[in-house]
Structures are given as C-alpha cells and as structure tokens.
Amino acid sequence: MIPLTADRRMLGYEVLSSYPDISCFVTTRHGGCSRGSYASFNCTPYTGDDTECVSRNQELLCEGLPQRPVELVIPYQTHGNRILVIGSEYLSASPQRRLAMLQGTDSLVTFERGYCLCISTADCIPILLYDPKHQAIAAVHAGWRGTANCILGHTLAKMRALCHTDGKDVIACIGPGISLASFEVGDEVYETFRESGFQMDYISKWKQETHKYHIDLWAANRLQLLDFGVPSTQVETAEICTFMQHEDFFSARRLGIKSGRILSGIMINT
C-alpha cells in the first residue's frame, strides 16, 4: 500500500495508482476528531459514534481526495450476500429511500461516476474491484461468513452479468483485516469453509499448542479472484493485520463492537 496523505489519515493501492480515472482509499485511525474506542478517524455511521464527529471526519476524508465525491455510499452491512447496484433506481430515490436500500447490503457495484462505494471493516476484509475495460467498480465486505458464502465470487458474477466483466479485466485490492496468525476459529467455522468447498490446506492451519484452527481470509478471497480468472499480478493484498496493528487500524476483537471502523472506498472520477 502507498500513503495518500501526509497526516496518515489514508492509504491507497499501488496497483490502482496508474489509473487517473479512479480514486480509492483506506482510512487509518489517525487525524480525526472521534474519541474513546472511536478515536480518532472513524468515518462510518451505524457504530454509535457521535454523529457530528462522524460528519466532520467524512468532511476531512472528502477534502483529502483528489476529487470530491458526489456521495459517500456507505451500506449497513449484515454479513449477508446482498449486492446492491448503484444505478438509476438508487440515483432517482429520495435520501430516505436510499438509506433503506443500503440496509442489509454487503457489496456495492456501479458504473456511475462520482459515487464513492464504501465498505466498513474492523477485522473483516474489505475488497475493492475495478474493471477498466467496462468502467465498472465494486466494493465488497468479506467477513468470515461472507467469505465462506463467496460474496466476492458472487460480486464478480454480478459484474459479468451486468457488463461482461472477464477475469483478465479485473484489478483487485484486498485490504487490511485480520491475519491467519490472529484469526483463531472454532471447529464450526472450519467446517463451514470445508463444506463450502474451500481448499482447506491452503486457507487454514492447525495450531498444535492451542488445538485450534486458524483461517486465512486473505487467501480464501484471493482464491475466489483466481477462480474467476483474475491474474495474480492484478491482485494487491495489503497484508496489514488489524488485530496486530490495532493502534493504526480499528479492530473489533481488540476494541469491541462499539468502536470505529476502517472505511475503504473506490470511485470513478467525473
């Protein structure tokens, strides 16, 4: 990853840096006004943070981007498989209707310029996708449930259905999240992945000292990209463990559910 701002508020992806028609970012914990477990740069509503602090942090985010978004599209995520296309129906809806449409959504896709698709995470995996050939973008929230249910694969399939996206067309960014070393799971989680057909020797490791499995969510999502035909050279993985680097990135396992969130966003510039 590469720094976007000198104040450490935001990072970007090297693999997307050569595309001037794209803006993208990943927020850190630094440079905002939120307090306590939300300190300090929490840009996500729905978390219990002070609304004025969230609004001010969002304004700082927008000011730091090369181009100001028409809207930060931030869904209320539920670890489900619902994909929302930000198109004519959304754009013609009232603010109240838009908010309703974003409920229970864990993946966003659009062709519209100026609408910044955002995903909120704090140990789950944020994934940003760009198809430069067809000018389509997506933002995906892949926690362990979403990953096991192949929400990334479903999003890629949606892009293929909407605009004939092919694997070779996709640039993919796998953002900061919990690492294999930190993600200890119970047998039921391991079995969920196994029953979903994942290559368990590739995405998991048994720790003899704890008698627990660990799951690699980065690898599990990378497999979905490779299975779709995305070249490995077009996939960038941040390799930042939020649990280990909790002073710089929000981690729900460290701070609790009532805490801030990393915001990952991607936008086609106007």
UniProtKB/TrEMBL annotation:
GO terms for molecular function: copper ion binding; hydrolase activity; S-methyl-5-thioadenosine phosphorylase activity. Pfam families: Cu-oxidase_4 (PF02578). Keywords: Hydrolase, Metal-binding, Transferase, Zinc. It comes from the Bacteria. The keyword Transcription does not apply. It catalyses: adenosine + phosphate = alpha-D-ribose 1-phosphate + adenine; S-methyl-5'-thioadenosine + phosphate = 5-(methylsulfanyl)-alpha-D-ribose 1-phosphate + adenine; inosine + phosphate = alpha-D-ribose 1-phosphate + hypoxanthine; adenosine + H2O + H(+) = inosine + NH4(+). NCBIfam families: peptidoglycan editing factor PgeF. Belongs to the purine nucleoside phosphorylase YfiH/LACC1 family. This is Purine nucleoside phosphorylase.
